[in-house]
Design brief:
The chain is α/β, with parallel strands linked by helices. The protein contains 9 helices and 16 strands. The longest helix has 21 residues. The termini are close together.
Length: about 325
């Protein structure tokens, strides 16, 4: 089978597009004929060796996939050949990745693709959708009528957070870096979208939510808690999902006297049952049109190295050339 893989960690140029043996679906695994995959920042960290995990070499990169079940292992119970499925959490913790024509995946990490949802949408919604759901529902318990703020509402995670929060019934404030991206945030359902290049973001938030923000989703790699904690409402919740190397000052006093909570999480730590609960809601919202993954561009799998470079330029170097997910077709 064709696959995008590495033989050692390093820059995007270490990704080879070539032939590897097709894996076998042993145990509760199923063999998925992959149709589409999506690129995530964690993929680039693993490929670069910035996040230390055991990687089976040669290592197929990638976490997300959507495709069709071809064969099932003898212990698989939920899935059958011919079923369309999507999933994430591959390429992690010793598991092989998804950037290949075929992937052998434990059926516990796979979910049925709803009718009317194509493979590109399903792949684009996978990791960012589960991440957003875990943060909003499992951690923050976001409720209808509450106010949520998220940085970067036109990006992969940010656009998903905006749409999920609206599906739950929250009021949403977000930011973006250009008039076009601000309009995209409004089209996704944001009640207030601010241009962080030209608008007074803090004044806009305070005017929109004078009693404070109930849930603050922090996506910046260098959070400024001295700025953000005062904007939380009493019993406000803050979610952290970025900034592995960040060591910011934290205003403990102003935080705890308002009964606030701070949640940090990585989606790959969540067990299969928690991720499946997230997938059930994601499927419901995808089928109802309440969740529309924002795809910036679609490339062939052979251009996986280029896709990794593009993702890295935006995640690490703030190039600003992406507004959504990179999807690769297989």
């Amino acid at each position: 089978m064709k696959a995008a893989f590495i033989r050692e960690t390093g820059p995007p140029e270490n990704i080879t597009y070539g032939d590897l043996p097709t894996p076998e679906p042993t145990g509760a695994r199923v063999l998925v004929r992959v149709k589409a995959v999506a690129v995530n920042p964690i993929d680039t960290y693993l490929r670069a060796g910035a996040v230390k995990m055991d990687l089976p070499m040669p290592f197929v990169v990638g976490c997300d996939l959507a495709g069709v079940v071809e064969r099932c292992g003898p212990e698989a119970k939920r899935l059958k050949p011919g079923m369309r499925v999507w999933g994430s959490n591959q390429g992690l913790l010793g598991r092989q990745g998804t950037f290949a024509e075929y992937a052998a995946v434990d059926e516990g990490w796979l979910y049925p693709t709803p009718d009317g949802v194509d493979d590109q949408q399903a792949a684009a919604a996978a990791l960012v959708g589960i991440t957003a759901h875990l943060g909003l529902v499992r951690c923050a318990h976001l409720a209808a009528g509450e106010t949520l703020f998220v940085n970067g509402g036109s990006g992969g995670v940010g656009s998903t957070v905006v749409q999920m929060a609206k599906a739950i019934g929250a009021r949403v404030v977000t930011t973006a870096g250009s008039p076009q991206k601000v309009e995209a945030c409004r089209a996704l359902g944001a009640d207030l979208a601010l241009n962080y290049q030209t608008d007074d973001v803090d004044a806009g938030i305070r005017q929109f939510a004078p009693a404070g923000v109930n849930v603050w989703w922090e996506t910046l790699r260098e959070p400024d808690f001295e700025r953000t904690v005062p904007m939380l409402a009493p019993r406000g919740r803050m979610i952290l999902m970025a900034g592995r190397e960040a060591r910011p000052v934290f205003p403990v006093g102003p935080f705890y006297v308002k009964d606030c909570s701070l949640f940090g999480f990585a989606m790959f730590n969540a067990p299969p049952d928690e991720q499946r609960a997230a997938a059930d809601d994601i499927n419901r919202w995808l089928a109802a049109g309440k969740l529309r993954p924002r795809i910036d561009r679609v490339l062939p799998l052979a251009e996986a190295a280029q896709a990794h470079r593009l993702q890295e330029d935006n995640t690490l170097h703030k190039a600003g050339t992406l507004a959504g997910k990179i999807v690769l077709t297989v």
